[in-house]
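Researcher: Here's the sequence for the chain we discussed earlier.
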Amino acid sequence: MRYIKPKRLHKEDLIGIISPASTPDDLSRINSGVRYLEKLGYKVLVGSNVGKNHGYLAGSDEERVSDLHSMFKNKNVKAIMCVRGGYGSPRLLDKIDYKLIKKNPKIFVGYSDITALQMAFLQKANLVTFAGPMLAVDFHDEISTFTEEFFWRLVTSNKKIGRIKNPNNEKMYFLRKGSARGQIVGGNLALLVSLMGTQYFPDVRNKILLLEDNGEAPYRLDRLINQLRIANVFDKVKGVVLGAFTDCKELDPNKKSLTLGEVIEDYFTKLKKPAVYNFQHGHIKDNVTIPFGIKVKLNATRGFMEIVESAVS
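Model: Thanks. This is the structure I predict for it:
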């Protein structure tokens, strides 16, 4: 399957802002994120429902879908950036016009809860999307130089990206040696598992699978990874890349628990295909943006990953 690459971003292009999951507690983060983008020379259009609240959701399902559709319909909008993750994206999946998205391919950016939208766009509209910085999380205050430089290079250059270096030259470690090539899919582990058994779960055959998560106790990660295992997902993929699993520990010192490391070793050292961990992607400040659907080369033995093409046209 060849996925559709969106067109690259140019200075003065219009970036649309939507909030398909939750709203930040501090709405001033949205304003400072907008100022950051404008300072870089981009124009910004904030969705008409951004900033709304409906419990833990950023407005009703209809309001959030309306903003998403209007940004894809608007010919002037060249990229769409999510405000934050949180909760709620999967509720929109059966309400989205995927033909509209396929006809209007654009740069679409987010991570965490946004994984649900990204995998659905890949599966139903063949669109390459970007697991990368969100407006009110990564671009509102002290901005990581690494995160912004890597992201903007990815979405503004139609040259081959090449080998990815972790920030601060942090090493990637192999769980199983070997090398593999394939298009990269995945994202947040909990969100990916929530799509299983639906038409929105990505085709994982011959793909490189990326997984990351945040705030899940080891027993919950165990359950999620095991779900992928018994659904034969690991049998179908070419290799596995484990990103950051932040705050994934048992908080009660009196409770018996495996460690995060023990859970990971238990599953991934037994794989018969290349697997690495400590790839710097996920709920972290210095974050490697990943273009889902783009071909990568994984060398677990030597601990590196390479994006072998451009992510935009």
